[in-house]
Every structure is written in C-alpha cells, then in structure tokens.
Amino acid sequence: MGTTSAAPHDTGSGPDEDRNGRDGRDRGDGRIGRIARSPLGWMLTGTVGVGLVSGLTATGPGPVPVLGAAAAVAVYRLVMHRAARRSTPEIARRGAGRAALLGGGIGLGFVLVSTILITVFGGYSFSWAGGSVLTVVRTAVMVQIGAAVTEELLFRALALQALEQLWGSRAAIVITSLFFGAAHLGAPGANAWSGLAIALEAGVLLGAAFLWRRSIWFVAGLHFTWNTAEQLLGIPVSGHAPEGLFTVDTHGSALLTGGSFGLEASMVPVLIALALAVPMLVLAHRNGGMKTRRRAGH
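^ thats the sequence. predicted structure below, dont judge the formating
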C-alpha cells in the first residue's frame, strides 16, 4: 500500500513573495511563527491541545470520552493546518472505517492469542464477574475509544511524525517507543521491566503499524480492541484493575502473567508484538514508508 509523506506542503511562490521567498501570509510572523511551523513547534502545540482535551474528558461519564476524542481530532487537524501547514491524510474520513476494522482485528487477535497462551501455560484462570453485561461493555467501549484516539494522536500523529521529519523513521520509532514506555511508569504495579515491555510491544508495534498504513484510524483501532479486550476479560490494563465481564486469577511467574501490572508485562505479548511489528516494518520499507533524515525533511 502506498504511503503519504508527513512533510509540510510547499507553499509555493508568487507575486506577493518577499526577498526571502516567504509569501504574504508569512510576513510579520517573526520568530514565534517560525518556531510554531517547525516540527518540534507543531508537535508541542498539538501535544498541549490534544493533551488538554484528553485530560478534561478521559474519565468523564457516558459518551464524554468519545466526544473528547472527536474534539482531539479537530484540535489536531487545526494545529496541522495552521501551524505545520500541511494536509492530514492520516485522519482522512475516506477509508477510516475499513482501516479501524483491520487494525481492530489485529489488536483483538493479539490479545486473545496472548491470553490463550498464558492460560494454557497455567498463568490465568477466569470466572464470571456477574453484573450488567451491557453497562460493562458500554463503559469499556466509551473509555477506550477516548484513550486510543487521543494517545495515538499524541504519540504517533504528533510525536512520531515530527521526530521523523527531524531524524528519520527509525530514530522516531525508537524515541516514541521509549517515551511511550516511560509514560506508563506511573501506573499501579509498574516497574522498569513493565516500562520496557510497553516500549517494546506497544511502542514498537503501534509505531510500526502507523509507518505501514499511515492511518491513525488503523492504529487507534488496534489500540482500542487491545485495551477493550483486556478490560472485558478482567485483566489489568497497564496496571489499572478494570470492571470487566470476568475476574482473573494469576498463577506462577510474573514474567508469564505480567503480575499486578497485567498482560503487557508478560513476555508472551512482547514476543508476539515484535513478531507482528517486524513484517509491518518490512512492508513499510518496501512501500517507501521508512524515511531517512534527508528524505523526511522534504
């Protein structure tokens, strides 16, 4: 599948151009305008905007997290159009549903295969939790849509694409993966291993998925079903004990079960995630989606 460059579009030239080649819209912008148009500038601007929306809506009741996700997408589009001055094919509506379903299928399969393997090896046992199925499912879906969309906007749409312009795709995926792992160190039950595990499985897999498809809907779908399946199974999601359809008991080594942090700190999903990420990166490279530092800047 072809990919779309994340580089800003050329503004062109015309009769209003000044002696430095900037058109009339850029006159008077000064240093602040140039900083805002730089990759780090629009990354930070977008991070503040999307992060603020997420902070205000992530734990809201009912559909508030979903509305927050929609608002975050609008903020992202505004920042990219006004500050970065580029189009946003990564959040295009056309094909969004198909991309989200494909990513969602991969995410669901990833969690189910990981859980089945851990259960077969004696690490998990499940029992029905009771309660209202509809309420539990509705709550999980609302919360996880908000979390998946806003986190992917922050880490893949903003951070990965900005760092990719500066230093290329390989450096960008390494840096964003490490930051993604570090961002989860404050979660309950987190330690150095869980942070590294998150970086390897989530950071690398989601980054590879974005470089392959160049669609936030694809990676958000993957992220959403991953977290939602864990929550409904009653497995802690990054250390946070969920209200799910089942309760889970863990047995044996934390390296197998993930301990109190949950599935992401198990070696099983780490290995599966890396096995999925490698072919995605290979496909991204074949499709021209892996950019060098020189190419990323153009």
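The chain has a mean pLDDT of 89.
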